[in-house]
Amino acid sequence: MSELTHISAPQGVAPGNGYSQVVWGEGRFVAVSGQIALDEKGDVVGRGDPAAQARQVFANLRRCLAAAGAGFEDVVKLTFFTTDVGILPAVREARDSCIDVTRPPASTAVQVSSLIHPDLLLEVEAYAVIR
Q1: Of the candidates 16, 124, 127, 7, which has an alpha carbon nearest to the alpha carbon of residue 74?
Q2: 91 exposure class (CB count in 10 Å sphere: 0-12, 13-18, 19+)
Q3: Can you give the three-state secondary structure of 33-99, one letter per residue?
Q4: Most CB atoms closer than 10 Å: which of 36, 77, 95, 101?
């Protein structure tokens, strides 16, 4: 498990709502490609259901992190791509079930016009540091 430093807001920067402005650590860097709501067969999970898609995305992230010997406690940055920022409450609920909400990773949320499949609402990529 890596020792990570979290700063919710450096002096002169507004604090984030549910994320840290700065996170760093020493160790092996892991980049996880954007995960989408596909099951192991490649089928879309949760068509039209943001909460179901978010849960699947975070389950996929967990599996990818584990393959590198990491866990959500090692994540320093999450990037959210969504076709509608209105689904962010469902995304935050899924995220908060995985991360330490008292020491959240740095995060960015971006609304995009579309993702790789028309039924997908969300894609999330992660960066982690393993000590």
Answers
A1: 127
A2: buried
A3: EEECCECCCCCECCCCCHHHHHHHHHHHHHHHHHHCCCCHHHEEEEEEEECCHHHHHHHHHHHHCCC
A4: 95
